[in-house]
UniProtKB/TrEMBL annotation:
Lineage of source species: Eukaryota, Fungi, Dikarya, Ascomycota, Pezizomycotina
InterPro entries membership: DUF3712 (IPR022185), Tag1 (IPR046368)
Alphabetically ordered keywords of this record: Membrane, Transmembrane, Transmembrane helix
Entry superkingdom: Eukaryota
Disordered, as annotated region: 1-46
Transmembrane segments: 76-97
Polar residues bias spans: 13-23
GO cellular component: fungal-type vacuole membrane
Entry protein name: Uncharacterized protein
One Pfam family, short name: DUF3712
Length: 476
């Protein structure tokens, strides 16, 4: 098997004989890829011709992917070009008319509109002054130009869209974080019910919302698209004016020509970040359910924080004396803490003589409580006497003969018998007055009255007892 066998083949037409070597089965000898192979064909009956084929490859090579793609592209490039044109004709309008505006709107929706400061001032019954400082932020690298925009203020929880006023913003170029300010501008009052609703929330709540809404056109390079700006910002409110209090006061007796018999100062707190202008305010003063006086404050502008303002007022002395027992009864609990409790509500609000009804509706429904230390009241009364603002004779004329006699007695008038016609010891009267009140408040108030009696140098025991008995009766 190691040697090749000779195979005899028929001769061709010339009598030549061809020999072929048959490769051994061991495979040690292989026919060359470029060697000759023979093919026998039959030319004619009884004869065989041998034809030589040269350089036949063992296997034809397959084309690569790149070659296939190139061949495919050469055949179908025009179809792809038509498809691309059709795609761009559909996608580009969709991109610029839908996708880019939607992305721009999303950016606006995601950015905040923080209010760093604001101004709200009443100027008439139909107009207010509004100022605003805020900011807008867009992603870095973008510059967006905004056309002027009218921002309408409304209550977002009201069904539909009912604005109560508006503010106009000039055109802005926004890049990164951009500060935006609106100088004080006079604008009209819209829906009054909605304005009163917001003002009530602003007065009585610790926090409230400011909701704005408007439409504008944004420019991003050569692209223009409509933008809807709709934001709600949470801001601090007035918190019922907690901290409202009377400062020093002076009683003027006799009263001035306009009826003023009380002047002094009061503190109005503003817990919000807004500067609020309220015009001229007149407040009612209450002891329990009894109206006992009024005070007026002029040109009220409240920046954030506490504002101390002068006031002029009138105490209704006739009403106070006619209802003294009821007044003392309404103060029974407050007196245990050494204070008097006075309620304050709105009476009228005016600017240049014109009533501001949208403020009056809110303030007139308010009832703000203020506690005044008794020691402060006594000190103010003594200061009024010392400074000559309070003339005791004039006070006696106003309060009547009975009280006038009592005042005469308090300040050294005659009298040797008490209210029951007898002289007596008044050492236990203060204990009777404060026997049912807490120790801390009682001691404080007892000391105050004791100091008052000592300071008045009440040498006449009868008058002193009358005064103390009046207090006892008032507390019953």
């Amino acid at each position: 098997m190691g040697k090749s066998e000779k195979v005899a083949l028929p001769s061709d037409g010339n009598g030549n004989v061809h020999n072929f070597s048959k490769p051994s089965s061991s495979g040690k000898e292989k026919a060359s890829a470029s060697g000759e192979m023979s093919k026998v064909t039959s030319k004619q009956s009884g004869k065989i011709d041998l034809v030589h084929l040269e350089d036949i490859q063992e296997e034809e090579q397959k084309p690569t992917k790149k070659q296939k793609f190139a061949r495919h592209w050469k055949r179908f490039w025009f179809c792809y070009l038509i498809g691309l044109v059709v795609f761009l004709a559909i996608f580009l309008p969709l991109l610029f008319l839908k996708i880019v505006p939607a992305l721009a709107q999303l950016i606006v929706d995601k950015t905040g509109l923080p209010i760093s400061s604001a101004t709200l001032k009443a100027v008439s019954d139909d107009e207010v002054i509004i100022g605003l400082s805020t900011s807008l932020t867009v992603p870095g690298g973008l510059t967006v130009k905004l056309d002027p925009i009218d921002l309408f203020l409304h209550n977002k929880d009201t069904p539909g869209f009912v604005p109560y006023t508006m503010v106009s913003l000039d055109g802005q170029t926004v890049k990164g974080k951009t500060d935006i300010s609106v100088e004080n501008m006079t604008v009209g009052v819209g829906d009054r019910e909605e304005l009163n609703k917001w003002l009530n929330l602003m007065l009585f709540e610790e926090e409230t919302d400011i909701s704005v809404k408007g439409n504008t056109t944004a420019h991003l390079g050569a692209l223009n698209f409509n933008i809807k700006l709709e934001k709600t910002v949470r801001v601090a409110a007035l918190n019922e004016l907690k901290g409202f209090k009377l400062g020093s006061t002076r009683i003027r007796m006799p009263a001035e020509e306009d009826g003023t018999n009380l002047v002094g100062s009061l503190t109005l707190p503003n817990w919000s970040d807004l500067t609020i202008g309220l015009g001229n305010l007149t407040f009612n003063a209450w002891a329990g359910d009894l109206l006992i006086g009024s005070t007026s404050v002029y040109d009220v502008v409240l920046p954030p924080g506490n504002s101390t303002l002068p006031f002029r007022g009138e105490l209704f002395l006739d009403t106070i004396m006619d209802n003294l027992l009821d007044i003392l009864g309404s103060q029974a609990h407050a007196l245990t803490s050494g204070v008097m409790e006075i309620g304050v509500s709105g009476n009228k609000t005016t600017v240049d003589g014109e009533h501001i009804t949208y403020l009056e509706r809110v303030l007139n429904d308010a009832h703000i409580m203020s506690q005044i230390p008794i020691m402060q009241l006594i000190a103010d009364a003594m200061g009024s006497i010392r400074d000559g603002d309070l003339e005791l004779n004039g006070l006696g004329d106003v309060l009547g003969d009975g009280v006038g006699s009592l005042l005469d007695g308090l300040f050294g008038g005659d009298g040797e018998e008490d209210a029951g016609g007898e002289e007596g010891d008044d050492s236990n009267l203060l204990d009777e007055i404060f026997g049912n009140i807490d120790e801390e408040g009682g001691n404080s108030t007892r000391g105050i009255l004791g100091d008052l009696l000592d300071s008045l140098d009440m040498r006449n025991g009868v008058a002193k007892r009358k005064f103390l008995h009046a207090i006892v009766e008032g507390g019953k």
